[in-house]
Amino acid sequence: MADVTQNIKEKLSDLRIALVHDYLVQDGGAERVFSAFNKIFPNADAHVLIYNPKKSHKDFNDKKIHTSFLQKWPFAKRYYQWYLPFMPLATEHLDFSNYDLVISSSSSFAKGIIVPAHAKHICYLHTPTRFLWENRINYLADLPHPAFIRAGLPWLLHRMRSWDKQASERADTMITNSQTSRRRIMRYYNRDAQVIHPPVDTEHIPFSRHEGDYWLAGGRLVAYKRFDLVVKAFSKLNIPLIIFGTGPELSKLKKMAGKKTKFVGAINDEEKSRLYRRAKGFINPQIEDFGITAVEAMAAGRPVIAYGVGGAAETVLPNKTGKFIEHQTWEDIGDAIIRHKTADYNPKEIRNFAESFSHENFEKKLLQAIAAGLKLEDPIEEELALIEDAYAPYLN
Predict the structure, then answer these.
(1) Count of alpha carbons within 13 angstroms of residue 305, beta-carbon side
(2) Rounded to the nearest 5 degrees, what angle is found at the Cα of 245, between the Cα atoms of 334 and 247?
(3) Beta bridge partners of 105
(4) pLDDT per residue over 194-252, tens digit each?
(5) What are the residue ranges in the chain where pLDDT is below 50?
(6) In this predicted model, what pLDDT tens digit does every residue of 265-277 receive, in sequence order?
(7) Which CATH number fits the domain 2-199+362-385, given the four candidates 3.40.50, 1.10.10, 2.60.40, 3.40.720?
(8) By the 8 A CB rule, do 48 and 22 touch?
(9) Which end of the chain is more exposed for a tag (fewer CB within 10 A), N or C?
């Protein structure tokens, strides 16, 4: 494996490479993928629309980040959503004229960059832009803005959908994180994409055979992740639950919580790893494109109870590394907790499966996809093959 990746890296070493992400204003799964890009190509320049070093992962602290003109606009680093209508324009104004290869990590705008004719653009598209397609109705309903502002948003989002569809056609090669996202890309953009599961930092999560007395859940506490169902189930059961992470749902969840539910807020990777190792298991109630936290829990040897739709269907093996609930309800979650038996799972087998999502495997697959997209064969051999194909009808 090392020989394959090293050989491709050597072929890419003479190229001028740029990395692009939508914006670095939080520390989520998409940002971890962008961090992996940076580790694979440490000398590549990084470009984003807006960068907030206080909210981004520490991996970017020592990296020079090139930003768009939006970076200097008032309060952009904190209230970046204010400038949504200007982001397509800002994306197209990013300058890639000095690069041979541009690799974008996108959930919204970065896929729409414009590269010169001589360059290749390879896009790792996490999902079609949620607020324009899959979640467009809920997005409008959940906005905290006054009614007169929300009234004009459908027209704006309609115009942005047209740009978004055009932007999806610009990458030379499309990669995505799961079969779920691949189906969405085909539906909304009419493009196929190669699936390469995102990297999970399994090598830095210690394995443990010894579970504690609590269950664990966490991530960004937003409505669509349905942590309310988990909190309600554990409130009814009166069983210890720990939830990590922050988000707009935090205050609501705290009001619903029972006496044995604990919220630990934003925690670092070491603290999160410790929680994984000592938990009885991990609860994943949401529909995710992939779901990194579930794989992280499995890396520690912990089984996962998940709603078996979306990314979880690709990351959890029923009756091997976890269990699926049939319905996204608190009753189904509670029933799975009551019926859970530790003896049904082998922590070492769970860990072994999680390691298939390692950084090493991700790097190998990504480099192979890039090599295929760039057609890194001998140019003379490739030209001869084209000539032979052209004259083949006359030679037979």
Answers:
(1) 29
(2) 100
(3) 21, 124
(4) 999 999 989 889 999 888 899 999 998 988 899 999 999 999 999 999 999 999 999 99
(5) 148, 378-380, 382, 384, 395-396
(6) 999 889 999 999 9
(7) 3.40.50
(8) yes
(9) C
Give the strand pairing for 173-176 and 241-244.
unpaired
- Quick one: pLDDT at residue 82? 87
Predicted pLDDT at 318: 94
Write out pLDDT tens, residues 183-192: 999 999 999 9
Q: Where in the chain is the domain with CATH 3.40.50.2000?
A: 202-357
Fold of 202-357: Rossmann fold (3.40.50)
